[in-house]
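== Protein entry: sequence and backbone fold ==
=== Local backbone shapes as whole numbers ===
==== Amino acids and backbone structure tokens ====
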Amino acid sequence: MREGRGVQTWPNGGKYEGEWKNDKSWGRGKFTHASGDEYEGDWVNDKANGKGTFKRRDGWTYTGQWKDDRQHGQGLEVGVDGSRYEGQFVDGMKQGKGKFEWSDGTKYDGDWVKNAMEGKARLWHMLTLLGTIHVEGRPHLHRLLESKQNARSRHLQVA
């Protein structure tokens, strides 16, 4: 039975380095997948629980709270293109209040439902508030972004 600190390597190339309790990863540790992706942070009962960082080999990262191997609570997700989401996650999805920033500096600050921008929000470009918007359903983002050029200080309804 594994207890304390140790290393486990699997035949597929996966590797866990960290703390063990009752033969399970428990405490602080780092798991490196065979693909090169890695999670470093808190573990409870062989699952990511607490605070930690997941880095994909392509450069995408998530740093924040975890529950049962899923993003859950406050977190920061950074895409390979430089886009960023900072806000709430529920069961692995953006849910609740959050801020998304595209690589061109355009920002969405508002509500999220199951990974989709939905509800009341404010849309910014660089330091200029373009308007308050209400997003219903899953909008086509290109329409939302195209409308930002003419959106100064008005309410947008995006279907």
